[in-house]
Each structure stands twice: as C-alpha cells, then as structure tokens.
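dude i think i finally got it to work??
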Amino acid sequence: MSLSVLFIGGTGQISLPCVEDALAAGHKVTVFNRGKLDSELPAGVETLVGDMNDKAAYRALGDKSYDVVCQYMAFLPERVAEDIEIFTGKTGQYIFISSASVYQKPAQHYVITEKTPAVNPYWLYSQNKIAYEQKLIGQSKLPWTIVRPSHTVRTGLPTMVGE
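look at this
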C-alpha cells in the first residue's frame, strides 16, 4: 500500500535515510524544509521550500492531506499546538521525532525501557522535547506516535542542535 508522507525536515542525519526508505518502499514523499542543506534528495521526492517560522508557508501544509506527517524539526513545545491545529483531520498519523536524551538522568538502571521516566534536568533541548511530548500525549485530536532515536545512521555532525 502506497502512502503519502510529509517529512518536515528531510535532509538531516536521521530524516534523510527515512526519506530514502519511504521512497524505496513506494510511498509518495513530500519534504518541507528551508532548502539550505546540500543533501541531495532522491529523484521523485516533492520538495516544498519554506520556513517553519513563516506562519503562512507553514500553515499552507494543512491545505493538503497526508497519510503520515513526520515532524523532525520541532524543538520547542509551543510548536505542538500549531501542528495539532494544522494537521488534525489532515493526516492519519503524526510522528514526532523526539530524542533518547529525554530518558531519566541520572539513569536509575542501565536498561532503558518505555517505562523509564522522561526526566532530564540537565539539558534544555531534552526538557523542550519532553514538554512537546507531554502536550502531544495530553490531547486526543491528532493520532500520534513518538519516536526517541538514540543514534543517527549517517556520518557528520547534527546541524540543528542549538540553532
């Protein structure tokens, strides 16, 4: 079954391999990003160049429907309310890419599971991801999945942390 998938981001350490895999699986792939990275997207990917901080450009994403929306670029909890508004009724599944850095620090056990609390008092990045997750979990309008990657699959340094 072919799905229409919107990647918000799409050229980063984690997102580009996901874009490539989705396309290889036969899905219709659209990428929304600023078009600033040199990463070459595979042929067949529809590119929407825009900035999430441009409200009109970002809200225009809700003019179309997608089976899946993958949000890689949300770093502040304020973004979740806007995403819920834009994508409710327009997507079958909203996937928020969080971070394994949200897991409890200091660790209480060497094995991390889904039951490990999301508590990181040391890093604002993680605290913002936790707040985003909590807001997403606390609503029932938009079907969601939270992914907490712990490793990247490409080489290079992340470009967005701290930007």
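Residues 103 and 113 are 9 Å apart (CA to CA).
im so relieved honestly
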